[in-house]
Amino acid sequence: MSSDSISKPAAPIGRRIRVRIAPSPTGPLHLGTARTALFNWLFARKHGGAFIVRIEDTDLERSDPKYEKDILEGFKWLGLDWDEEVYRQSERLALYEKYITELLDKKLAYYCFCSKEQLEEERQALLAQGYPPKYSGRCRQISADEAAKRARKGEASIIRFKVPETKITFTDIIRGKITFDSSLIGDTVIAKNTRAPLYNFAVVVDDYEMKISHVIRGEDHIANTPKQILMQEALGFERPQYAHLPLILSPDRSKLSKRYLETSLSDYRKEGYLLEAMINFMVLLGWHPAPEKDEATGRIFEPEIFSKNGLIKSFDLKRAQKQGAIFNIEKLEWLNSQHIKSLDNSELAKRLEEFLPRDWPKEKVAAALVVEKERMKKLSDFVELAGFFFKLPDYEAQLLIWKEMSAAQILENLEELKSIFRAYEALNIEDVIMKLADSRGRGGVLWPLRVALSGKQASPGPFDIIKVLGREEALERIKIAIKKLES
RNA sequence: GGCCCCAUCGUCUAGUGGCCCAGGACAUCAGCUUCUCAAGCUGAAAACACGGGUUCGAUUCCCGUUGGGGCUACCA
């Protein structure tokens, strides 16, 4: 093992940049995976490299095609387009077999016949004495002939890689030098058999075969890196560059889990978060762009709201944070409301479609959305927010009363409003009503008007509502209010 | 337990030895705005974990302590 390889750039200038996201289809697309994908994608797009999707489905038990579908759909939704066909490890078994055999032939790997129970017992014994749990290497001694014989007899076995005792140092783009002592690791299992590789081994083979230049992944993989490096060296593979991203954390600072928050990207999509907001939010979890200088004022400012293209422009992996970032749903909501506001109305209408009841007429939705746009934090809020435009909610007459005013006064004001509605066009009604409001007290006029129109305690202003409802409907609603007060 | 990583407002962060009695954003609180709500605007409160060094000078460099996290599978 050469520690001087630190100084040699693993991906020399000129080597094509190729990165990958390697999810395992054992669950729906996790936010953490989505963010790692985003960082990889951004890195590839920034440097004109290739972004590759590799499905790590070596665990047949836990893998399910439905999850692969969910993962791929998630990437598509986010607009993280990949550059080559989707690779599946389950379709590359011959490849792994070739390298496993090579390791076996070179005596760099061996068959292990220890039983799981035996192993577990040893592990616990070691742990109890305060030693790191490490495989004893007992089966290293078994000769290839004997191993073959025992295997033929049907004895259960797995394949272990001979981990050499050395110090492994690699340079992480985000964290700098990281050193491990491999004598603490023990011979790791690389495959159940020659056609059933395990994660750490398959990764090494694939990253090499796919000519991956930069491995950008979560911090939880730091401990896997030395094992992978050792296998690369045994096989004579070039070492990629590594960058380990900080983890997304739950509010209790542990790895993001369902205990606190939804962890699947699709949950956020269903709740009405925009892909633009998700991207913006995820990229800010553990990364910040360099502050910019406003040429006009000379002031330094830190941009917070990004488009995807803006991100590609300012992305720099070196600016990634080292510390885990807590998932802050409030910031996501704010970001979402900002992106909703910057969507143009027709686009917003399109995004809203899947959230709407079928019987809401399009034209009215289009008008209502203009009014409710700035009140929406999520697309799903719209139905609740704008429902009153489509059907006047039932409300108590009491709600029409403004503060200390009497019902009689309110009634009088509403009658006055009714005649205004009869006499004027909806377009210039605002001035007339405001004149009335100024003479009779704003609250006493505007409050009952708004309640009559919306049936709600909180809503947009009356004039905005009138624009959506039209004069006829507004007049009807005022009549209803009057009737309520009279009875 | 062992190994590894990390440590600036409640949260996301700017900051790479003096420009910092620490800047921005979210959240919070207060004020302004055609009645309410939202948005918007203005303002307030809010942090360099601790202890040693190094230095003329440390948030920034080094060491230690403490704290947090990750890993420790025939999962990925």
How would you describe the overall organization of this protein?
Belongs to the class-I aminoacyl-tRNA synthetase family. Glutamate--tRNA ligase type 1 subfamily. Residues 17-334 form the Glutamyl/glutaminyl-tRNA synthetase class Ib catalytic domain. Keywords: Aminoacyl-tRNA synthetase, ATP-binding, Cytoplasm, Ligase, Nucleotide-binding, Protein biosynthesis. The protein has helices at 31-47, 65-78, 93-105, 116-128, 144-152, 199-209, 225-235, 265-271, 275-284, 308-314, 329-342, 345-352, 362-372, 381-390, 407-423, 429-440, 442-454, 462-486; strands at residues 18-21, 50-55, 87-88, 109-112, 158-161, 167-172, 176-181, 189-193, 196-197, 214-218, 241-245, 248-249, 292-293, 300-301, 325-326. Helix 1 (31-47) crosses helix 10 (308-314), helix 15 runs antiparallel to helix 16 and helix 17 crosses helix 18. The chain is built from 18 helices and 15 strands. It is 46% helix and 12% strand. Among the domains are: 3-249, Rossmann fold; 397-486, Orthogonal Bundle (Arc Repressor Mutant, subunit A), CATH 1.10.10.350. It binds one RNA strand of 76 nucleotides through helix 4, strand 7, strand 8, helix 6 and strand 14.
Q: What is the C-level CATH assignment of the domain at 3-249?
A: Alpha Beta
Q: Span from first to last CA? A: 91 Å
Beta fraction of the residues?
5-15%
Question: Which fold name fills CATH's third level, the topology of the domain at 3-249?
Answer: Rossmann fold
Strand order of the largest sheet: 4-5-8-9
Q: What portion of residues is helical? A: 40-55%
Keywords: Aminoacyl-tRNA synthetase, ATP-binding, Cytoplasm, Ligase, Nucleotide-binding, Protein biosynthesis
Domain Glutamyl/glutaminyl-tRNA synthetase class Ib catalytic: 17-334
Catalytic activity: tRNA(Glu) + L-glutamate + ATP = L-glutamyl-tRNA(Glu) + AMP + diphosphate
Function: Catalyzes the attachment of glutamate to tRNA(Glu) in a two-step reaction: glutamate is first activated by ATP to form Glu-AMP and then transferred to the acceptor end of tRNA(Glu).
